[in-house]
Amino acid sequence: GAVVSQHPSRVICKSGTSVKIECRSLDFQATTMFWYRQFPKQSLMLMATSNEGSKATYEQGVEKDKFLINHASLTLSTLTVTSAHPEDSSFYICSASIFPGGHQETQYFGPGTRLLVL
Amino acid sequence: QKEVEQNSGPLSVPEGAIASLNCTYSDRGSQSFFWYRQYSGKSPELIMSIYSNGDKEDGRFTAQLNKASQYVSLLIRDSQPSDSATYLCAVGGKLIFGQGTELSVKP
Predict the structure, then answer these.
(1) What are phi and psi of B40, to 5 degrees?
(2) Which stretches within chain A are classed as H helix?
(3) What pairing do the DSSP bridges indicate for beta strands B45-50 and B96-97?
């Protein structure tokens, strides 16, 4: 249980284009979904938190107009990187949270999307 | 600023040995604690969660929590080369991550 998928797993795009990444919880309805970015040799950096039907909450320093998040349902969240530039090249990882067996909120991660902007 | 600190790596242990990974956290009100394993180029995988003081065992893994000392650890018994990865300590529902400890298990 608690499987999270992401699509695509890898994308290469030209500078100035937009890229959409999908995150789905496959066997559960997620309370909340999170979007992270990870640069090589660094830990995960939280970008935003999203709940179904609500506007995403962005972390300080993350441009909400550049990283558009849509949380259409309890099992689907999308991240769109608008007008991507080479510095946006990174490993983008989503997670979905549940409260397993009445315990504290637990996040399960998707496999990640590697974005390369040329 | 809520912080999570992990012992700096890389940590190298021989196959079959016990690997000990440590983590301290600053928010005394934290209620949930997690260990994630991240292989190179992959996303984090949850391996242990712990909420109460004491030990929690799952197979070769034991998580230990001491809220008074604000300390959580992960022991890996009978370490295998396949355990070689970066281990991330994370605290809270909205996770605060440590910087990770790279573990290398030598055959």
Answers:
(1) -55, 125
(2) none
(3) unpaired
Contacts of B95 (CB under 8 A, 6+ apart): A34, A46, A107, B34
The single-letter code of the amino acid at B95 is L
CB contact (8 A) between residue B32 and residue A43: no
Q: Which residue of A has its CA nearest to B89?
A: A43
User: Collapsing DSSP states into helix, strand and coil, what is residue B56?
Assistant: strand
Which of A34, A43, A104 is opposite residue B88, by nearest beta carbon? A43
**CB B44 to CB A103 under 8 A?**
no
Residue located via tokens 């230990």: B64
Instruction: For chain B, give the longest Cα–Cα distance.
Output: 41
Q: Which helix (H) or strand (E) holds B63?
A: strand B61-66
Interchain proximity A111–B44, CB inside 8 Å: no
SS3 B26: coil
DSSP label at residue A24: E
Q: What is the DSSP letter of A16?
A: T
- Residues of chain A with C-beta less than 8 angstroms from the C-beta of B97: 43-44
pLDDT in tens, A20-74: 999 999 988 887 999 999 998 888 999 999 988 888 999 999 999 999 999 888 8
Cis peptide, bond prior to residue A8, ω within 30 of zero: yes
